[in-house]
């Protein structure tokens, strides 16, 4: 088996991350000296004035580019880790946080907020509604899948699909009663964007990421055992039912936070853990931190592309990740099919 | 945000000082089709440096860079064009972008979407004041008054009008409320056949049952949306409007952001075409 | 060491297994025999806690349900019949998962893993990807894993083997059975194994439990239990008996 050892891989990713940070700070629609952009950060931290930038240029670096790249890193890391955990929980490398109903629920919450509430409230109401609805939907899906015998992974999948179908119908129904401008609002939101990044959102994402990363890492070993099978994990002393509920709620929280910060950004949770698994192996103790790093780099660079490719306009970053992710997903499916036919499954 | 406000006031003060000394050339970014139309009508087309995707793309405007969706504006993208003013609806966003732009001394002109003539006039006045074109605005307002008078003499009062948005998949009927279809119907002094709110998909049967006297068709396709609709829905010929040949195309671009100056022209055209101002002859 | 009293396993109103009284002492290798549907899996699942059941399962005097999960994991290990791991862990990594309920230093853990893999004859597979192994190889890797799991047992542990030789070739079958005998005799582990080959049972001479239609119909030495008459009763096949110098075999 060819596997990249974890420490060098992490070192490479961290270097990429730093390169990404520098690029994101210095590149943008407004051109300004690169050294100035970087010095502006120093100035802000040490209250000096060495950058030589104009006031509005400093604002661009500190209030636009910096929160945005931080948010991109954090959301990317959260989505990637939630994806890895979901794939472990479902024992399937094609699992994605969306399938447990978080995305559909979040979308319904957002549509409700968009259609029902006055426009002025929507800035904070839409993300909040999305977050709450996503969490509620996940709990609904989970309780549908539970029985006295435990939580069936297959039932979780099916319940998630059913809820997604129902949510889709609900959204269609609500869209019928709204007008065009509001409909467009929804489709923009569904494509994801880091444009609204500000310090509060960065703080939210930071707290979310730290809590999730620590909690997930503690479950890394048991998650490995879980991949053997639920009975096997139970025999090894892993509290299987409790762990399943914990992980589902945590993943829903993580995706909910990501959705509240930046709308729906797909494929990061699917593609990143898979790439890491292919290169460095499936052990969650390595998979989780490396996925976080990779997700951070990926989303940061995607956002950089999204905001510079069609300047002065912006591409929704979810579009870019979908463009990258969808073909990748297809390749994964084909590979999986080949594997199945080889092993005679 | 404090950094923004502080540097904002600093910069704004600086800019004011500069403005007193020299009339700097205006650089306008429009985030709304209606605003673009108004800017052009006020004779400021040359001052436009960027428009949004819904704004017309012909003539001088064809070469201008397009900014993105008005609720998701890129602060940096806009600042790279060194604008002095940003004009759009009150739905522009996100907030971070607007704060940063204001902090950099860009003047924001936010106009609510106009679905009535008074609203359109108010927007025009606001814009004119902000951009120092009161004189030009006045001549437009005079033109409004003249057109309004025309419309009143050719009013379609008592007629039932159906305003249809025709799209690739089908068509939708404009209901009551704040939408461009209703605004157009109000301009014509007529009644809306629809008794619901907002746009809805209706069946041909329902439309026939409503018995519209006049049908206005706005489409996303260029060309003649009315003819195209008649082609695909021949039963329309059985409506009172169809029988009397009162099915007209309307330029959708003039209504995409609410009423515009062009919309007034369209209303005048339709009113003239329908001809008979006296409903009792029907 | 394992006492079973009044055990009843039901599902959907059907009685799957009913055992009034059964005791498995330490260090005994017990073969669990019976036709399909006799209740063998139910017995293993009841002991390992996978299905709910009524009655008492006392392990070292304490009900299994009340054992702390970590302690229980160190004392009761189950070798599954089939393996559903599709992620590309290496064989060694799979065995290392057996370390989970234990508290060993890294070096000690590595030694234990190595020893277990030697016992289960899969050390040469250590670096290979688990999903790519044959069914028999996978089973041996899992066997190594459960051996690791029991290394820190303070009281005599229990090893449940669900058809441990079904996927193995002839040579491997005997290796595993000999290993099970060694574990029982030298390490005092109680081994309960579901087996189908009656001759193997006769050869290795372990205690036989025969289940049929959810009930225990025989319990004792193989030679006494596996008479042609009993076999015909339970399995519906009357074998012929051949006697060699040391033992007899069935055809």
From TrEMBL, chain C:
PROSITE patterns: ABC_TRANSPORTER_2. NCBIfam families: PRK13548.1. It comes from Alcanivorax profundi. This is Heme ABC transporter ATP-binding protein. It comes from the Bacteria. Part of the ABC transporter complex HmuTUV involved in hemin import. Responsible for energy coupling to the transport system. PANTHER family: HEMIN IMPORT ATP-BINDING PROTEIN HMUV. InterPro entries: AAA+_ATPase (IPR003593), ABC_transporter-like_ATP-bd (IPR003439), P-loop_NTPase (IPR027417). One of its GO terms (molecular function) is ATP binding. Keywords: ATP-binding, Nucleotide-binding, Translocase, Transport. Residues 2-238 form the ABC transporter domain. The lineage of its organism: Bacteria, Pseudomonadati, Pseudomonadota, Gammaproteobacteria, Oceanospirillales. Pfam families: ABC_tran.
